[in-house]
Design a protein that fits this description.
The complex is a heterodimer of chains A (about 280) and B (about 450).
Chain A lengths: L2 H6 L7 E7 L5 H7 L5 H7 E6 L11 E7 L5 H13 E7 L1 H5 L11 H8 L23 E3 L6 H13 L10 H8 L4 H5 L15 H4 L16 H10 L4 H8 L7 H27 L1
Parallel strand pairs in A: 1-2, 1-3, 3-4, 4-5
Chain B lengths: L3 E6 L9 E8 L2 E9 L6 H4 L8 H6 L6 H16 L5 H31 L5 H7 L1 H22 L8 E2 L2 E2 L5 H5 L2 H19 L13 E4 L10 E4 L4 E2 L4 H4 E5 L6 E5 L10 H8 L5 H9 L12 H22 L15 E9 L2 E9 L5 E7 L1 H19 L5 H14 L4 H4 L5 E4 L11
Helix pairs in contact in B: 3-4, 4-5, 4-6, 4-12, 5-6, 6-8, 8-12, 10-12, 11-12, 13-14
The chains are: A alpha/beta (about 280), B alpha+beta (about 450).
Chain lengths: ~280, ~450
């Protein structure tokens, strides 16, 4: 090509180089990218998939423009690997409950890790894991967090489009309650007395559970400024056992600070009531 | 001294989850094959203990984002046996419908995005678009139908919310069910075309004398119930599973390996096992397509599993259509639970093969014991055994090509590593003045 033609051609914006990394997880959130059946070919033409083991055998080295990180940190090796991912990535976006709060596997944070290992593996000494499951942000700075167990694929498309356009992605931080009102779903807590985490859980799923006659179980983690205490009080007053609220708060976002604090508070309250009962029994 | 070579694949691609392969050769002898699964363990069996049994379908879904329905279906049947409750026939039919959705979605994904690229020398489904745009787009539409069915009945495709012990939280509305019919009518024909397409692929000449294992039911193609049967004549009740199959821990893997208890031998589960053992119960259209493309059983070539997946997609569409067309809403949508202490097990057919669950519960409705055996941990030993023979056939290739060919064979099994860890990385070691693996 002559020097002249080069000058007259408009500058071509290079495609963003996208990498997808997996840590401890179920693969569901990265699958959400492949589940964008209608958008998949368009996305692939807008970004260059440089590293995505589940989808392609082509492996390109970093640096990457956007790294999507799925999963939580549960092994010493992964704690080192996330540092390397961060160094190679301009923007690091965590996707899903595992990456943003430690996931269901963070239940080990409340248990004796050795017991867990012995429960699943006959030779625990072959297995190298950490005693905790932690969010990516506990290890490296994160540029954007996309919540959900699993993430909402339309939110993922919004994130990729926004970042490609150089603007901050917009995802709602209000609670699931607003989505129920929009859908016209009758409140399952008010009408049926079903315990529901909707008031303290971030929007994003589309308020699916109440539309199937069950309470929200918190897949998208705590909404902005959640009043967990007040919700627990209401549910306990209307007949839910406080002991039943602990597992409800302690599932896919168990280690998200607001949910963790509330489940711990309820558990402490239970324990102090139990010890009070024991004391009274002993006195008699 | 004979030349020692190693073949390594550090991170297998186009499989679900993380694993590698390590092969060590001395001259022309395959000294060792290790399918190493380094996916970090997540301890589901441990933290299920003490949880309310009603939460189990939601929790076990999280073992795998690709086949959450398989986990949900297996656990609800096991828990219903523990509680000794029976489910309504309508629930049974809808559970089959939900499984049809997952088979269509998961097989659609594997055929087009993970496996077909191997037959065209492509790195990914997205590269395949350049070669076979129409076939690929058709595949995405098929996959989408699976997801739409899961969304209608389950609330969402990944980790559905509507599955409950005893039934469903809410029976779907007839209008929502019937809305899917036109797409599924188109999809059935598309699935037939897809199966004709994959049947023309160039398959390596590789057959083995497998023991194939699957569920089998006298009246239907197996999904949610049946006896466990094998091509070696095994026929047992699901309750007897643990007397005949056993999980063993191996040093190079965070997944447990399942073997036949009698002799420690490996076995083969998945679509090809199901088709071989239940060919006459495939839907009429699936059998017609099989005849037309000259597919007959027994088929012992693992590379042809892609055809078995195609036939199962045809079957799933045909069966789903039948259920969609005849659906009537019903109430209550689930059998009421009467809590009591008990134990129950169940096996169902995940897209990747037989999956087994056993739970014990106490009087408070809390789980006291959980055992989960996913398909990939059952296939893992068989994959290693296949690789030993496959590598002997490709010894003259360069290491790089050998590694690629090994990955191709592994992909036939559609291993789901996330599942098995409770999966997969390839290292080939041809330089073994080396201590035994794992003990450097």
């Amino acid at each position: 090509m002559s020097a002249l033609t080069q000058q007259t051609l408009p500058a071509i914006t290079p495609k963003l180089r996208l990498a997808v990394f997996k840590f401890a997880s179920c693969d569901g959130c990265q699958l959400s990218l492949l589940d964008c059946e209608d958008e998949l070919v368009t996305i692939a033409s807008a970004v260059e998939i440089a590293y995505f083991l589940e989808a392609t055998s082509k492996v390109e080295l970093g640096p990457y423009d956007i790294a999507l990180v799925e999963g939580s940190i549960t092994t010493p090796h992964d704690a080192r690997r996330i540092q390397d991912v961060r160094r190679q990535s301009k923007l690091l976006v965590t996707i899903g409950a595992c990456a943003t709060s430690g996931g269901i596997q963070a239940l080990r944070n409340w248990a004796d890790h050795g017991d867990f290992l012995r429960c699943v593996y006959a030779r625990p000494d072959y297995i190298e894991t950490l005693a905790t499951s932690t969010a990516i942000a506990d290890h490296v700075p994160v540029d954007f967090e996309l919540r959900g167990c699993p993430i909402n694929r339309y939110q993922l498309v919004e994130v990729l489009q926004s970042l490609a356009a150089g603007r901050r992605p917009q995802t709602a931080t209000y609670s699931v309650c607003l989505d129920c009102k929009r859908r016209g779903t009758v409140c399952v807590t008010v009408a049926q007395g079903i315990p529901c985490l909707g008031p303290i859980t971030q929007s994003g799923c589309g308020a699916i559970c109440p539309s199937y006659d069950r309470g929200c179980y918190g897949c998208f983690g705590p909404a902005a400024q959640p009043n967990c205490n007040s919700l627990s009080d209401h549910l306990i007053k209307t007949g839910t056992a406080s002991a039943a609220l602990v597992p409800l708060l302690r599932n896919y976002n168990a280690a998200a600070p607001a949910f963790r604090a509330e489940s711990d508070r309820l558990e402490r309250a239970e324990a102090s009531i139990a010890s009070e009962i024991d004391r009274v029994k002993d006195a008699h | 001294m004979k030349e020692i070579r190693t073949i390594k694949v550090d991170a297998l691609s186009r499989v679900e989850g993380e694993g590698g392969l390590h092969v060590r050769l001395q001259g022309d002898t395959v000294e060792e094959v290790r399918l190493s699964i380094y996916e970090p363990p997540r301890f589901f069996e441990a933290f299920l203990q003490g949880r309310p049994l009603t939460e189990v379908p939601d929790i076990v879904a999280r073992i795998c984002g690709i086949c959450p329905v398989a986990y949900q279906m297996s656990c609800v049947h096991a828990l219903e046996r523990a509680l000794e409750i029976t489910i309504r026939p309508e629930v049974r039919r809808l559970r089959r419908l939900l499984y049809c959705g997952e088979w269509i979605e998961s097989h659609g994904l594997h055929i087009h995005l993970l496996h077909a690229p191997d037959f065209f020398g492509c790195n990914s489904g997205l590269e395949l678009v350049e070669r076979c745009r129409d076939e690929f787009q058709r595949g995405l539409r098929i996959k989408k139908h699976g997801n739409e069915l899961l969304e209608m009945l389950g609330g969402r495709a990944i980790h559905p919310v509507n599955v409950a012990v005893g039934g469903f939280y809410r029976a779907p509305r007839r209008v929502d069910v019937e809305r899917l019919i036109p797409d599924f009518e188109w999809g059935l024909e598309a699935a037939v075309e897809m199966t004709r397409w994959v049947a023309e692929f160039d398959f390596p000449n590789f057959e083995r004398d497998y023991e194939m294992v699957s569920l089998s039911h006298p009246d239907e193609y197996p999904m949610n119930e049946g006896r466990i049967v094998s091509t070696s004549g095994l026929s047992i009740d699901v309750n007897e599973y643990e007397e005949h199959f056993e999980e063993r821990q191996v040093e190079h893997s965070t997944a447990l390996h399942s073997v036949r208890k009698e002799d420690g031998s490996c076995y083969f589960v998945g679509p090809l096992a199901r088709v071989n053992l239940n060919f006459d119960r495939l839907s009429p259209r699936a059998r017609q397509v099989a005849d037309e493309i000259g597919f007959s059983v027994p088929c012992l070539n693992p590379f042809k599993t892609i055809i078995a997946r195609g036939l199962e997609v045809v079957h799933a569409y045909e069966e789903a259509l039948d259920i969609l067309r005849t659906y009537r809403p019903f109430s209550p949508s689930r059998t009421e639970l009467r809590l009591k202490a008990g134990e129950g097990c169940a096996a169902t057919e995940a897209p990747r093969g037989l999956i087994y669950h056993r739970f014990a519960v106490n009087d408070d409705g809390k789980v006291t014991f959980a055992k989960i055996v996913p398909p990939t941990s059952q296939n893992q030993g068989q994959i290693e055994d296949d690789l030993r023979e496959w590598i002997s056939a490709i010894l003259n290739e360069k290491e790089e090509q050998m590694a690629l060919d090994c990955e191709r064979l592994i992909r036939c099994y559609d291993p789901c590593i996330s599942c098995s860890t409770h999966f997969l990385k390839l290292t080939v070691d041809r330089n073994a003045a080396i201590a035994p693996p794992g003990r450097p």
